[in-house]
Amino acid sequence: MKRFISRGLLGCLAVLLAAAVANAEVSGPPRIVSLSPGLTEIFFAIGAQDRLAGVSRQCDYPLAARLKPKCGDFNHPDMAGIIGADAELVLFSEQVREAELAGLADAGMQARIFPARSADEVIQSIFAIGELTGKVERARLLVEALQAEMDRISALVGHLPENQRPRVYLEVDGPQVLYSVGRDSFMSDLIERAGGQNIFASRPLPYLSVSSQEVVQVDPQVILLDHPFQYKVGVAKRDGWGDVSAVVGGRVFDATDFDMIVINRPGPRLAEALMEMARMFHPEVFDAQKTD
Fold first, then answer.
1. Domains 32-114 and 144-291 alike in fold
2. Which of 49, 101, 109, 235 has its CA 20 to 30 A from that of 160?
């Protein structure tokens, strides 16, 4: 009798355990598609890459991200790929078209947008993804390390008065049609933290088209070409740009001088982007450090 009862109890326990596992799987972190390279980097940085059912074709860092199933382009989902990946949640960053969100909703899928209007919002995204994937502690440690390094850099250049902060023109596309960053881009925030002044910081937009004449009139002292379609040798050939302070002073920087992907990607390499900018804006500060 005792043996019978023991086996019966074991059978009940097995059923209960199976049910508990099934419930845990149902209520666990969802299968996620990230269509933002910066968000994908966050998943890998906090050890949550197993939750990624798919990524965009632009998600190329770290190298392991390239092995994930492709479910569209940056902020543009491929519905067939997402359905094939059995995804439950699709993540976007910054701007996304309403039509894309409507298409996902019609297919019964959830979407979430992570804005990147400032460095602080990027850090908030790290916390949010940590909570979403059950990697809260890893996210906290990453944020602590990021903030410590960013504070260290800002302590070197953040105290500089306005007349020592160079006027900065950051070009994210061109040269046929010029695009720059406005106040609502994390890159504008990084420029300010790195001891510079974004010449279009008064514009309440993340990205905006600008005219060649506008740039020349403001006379930037530093120019960053954050796209692969123009090198610094071509900037001086633009109409009226030969007398711009950045050109005259040899302070036009392109992909041969800095890592474009690091600077334009809102993700866990935020401190590296800040350091790249700070070194270009204030080389004298970091040269002095080397000699100390």
1. yes
2. 235
| Dist. CA 216–CA 188, nearest whole Å | 19
pTM for this entry: 0.86
Q: Running DSSP on this structure, what letter comes out for residue 244?
A: S
Q: Write down the H helix ranges in the chain.
A: 2-27, 37-45, 79-84, 98-106, 119-133, 136-157, 186-193, 212-218, 232-235, 245-248, 260-264, 270-281, 283-291
Q: Where are the alpha helices (DSSP H) in 69-197?
A: 79-84, 98-106, 119-133, 136-157, 186-193
3-state SS assignment for residue 30 = coil
Q: Can you name the CATH fold of 32-114?
A: Rossmann fold (3.40.50)
Torsion, CA 211, CA 168, CA 59, CA 144, rounded to 10: -150
Local structure of 284: helix, strand or coil: helix
Closest CA to 244 of 224, 215, 283: 215
Tokens 């406005």 found at: 182
Q: In a structure prediction context, what are the per-residue pLDDT tens digits for the chain, which is 292 residues long? A: 344 444 444 344 344 434 443 443 445 667 899 999 999 999 999 999 999 999 999 999 999 999 999 998 987 888 888 888 888 899 998 777 888 888 888 888 889 999 999 999 999 999 999 999 999 999 999 999 999 999 999 999 988 899 999 999 999 999 999 999 999 999 999 999 999 999 999 999 999 999 999 999 999 999 999 988 888 889 999 999 999 999 999 999 999 999 999 999 999 999 999 999 999 999 998 876 665 5
Residues 28 and 34: beta-carbon distance below 8 Å: no
CA distances from 31 to 24, 57, 59, 127, 188 (A): 14, 18, 17, 18, 33
Q: Name the residue ranges covered by the structural domains of the chain.
A: 32-114, 144-291
Task: Name the CATH superfamily for 144-291.
Answer: Nitrogenase molybdenum iron protein domain (3.40.50.1980)
